[in-house]
Design brief:
170 residues; mainly alpha; Four Helix Bundle (Hemerythrin (Met), subunit A); 2 domains; 7 helices; globular
């Protein structure tokens, strides 16, 4: 990818954060606290950002970008495992990424997570996310049997457990 295109993409991705920081700075200078953006404002900003990326990248590369972006949580899991000494081979990493990504997509579709979590109460949304994480762990653990050694499976379970959303303590 040419450097000029990379710069455009980085600008598109970082501009909203820069704008928020500038607004927060200006508001703080006036002696008040900044109001967080509304859900609607965030969604509009995301839609605009997606349109800008699509116009810069084109449809095919934008689809690749969104596919990669959706796999970031799974890549973090694999990276964390390796940091904890799992020493996954390249083949194991690729296979586990495929398992994680497919399981996440399947669970999202089955659970109807295409539904808007923001339309739920905070407790309902938290419960939904926790249920999905439990399903993900079960699906991944079952499918990872043929990919990982027993020690690597233990490391995976630990990483998944630590990255899970936990219930609020009461």
């Amino acid at each position: 990818m040419p450097a000029s295109l990379q710069e455009k993409i980085i600008d598109i991705l970082t501009l909203p954060q820069q704008q928020l920081e500038q607004q927060a700075f200006e508001t703080a200078q006036s002696g008040s606290l900044p109001d967080p953006p509304s859900f609607e404002a965030i969604k509009a900003q995301q839609a605009e950002q997606a349109q800008q990326l699509r116009s810069v990248l084109g449809d095919a590369e934008y689809a690749q970008f969104t596919q990669y972006q959706a796999s970031i949580p799974d890549r973090i899991i694999i990276d964390q495992m390796n940091q904890e000494g799992a020493n996954l081979s390249e083949n194991q990493s690729n296979e586990l990424l495929k398992v994680l990504t497919e399981a996440r997509q399947q669970i999202s579709i089955q659970a109807g997570t295409t539904q808007n979590l923001s339309a739920m109460s905070p407790d309902e949304a938290m419960t939904t996310v926790q249920q999905q994480q439990t399903l993900l762990q079960q699906a991944v653990n079952n499918r990872a049997q043929a990919i990982l050694t027993p020690d690597q499976k233990t490391t995976l379970q630990g990483v998944l457990s630590r990255l899970s959303v936990r219930p609020k303590s009461q």
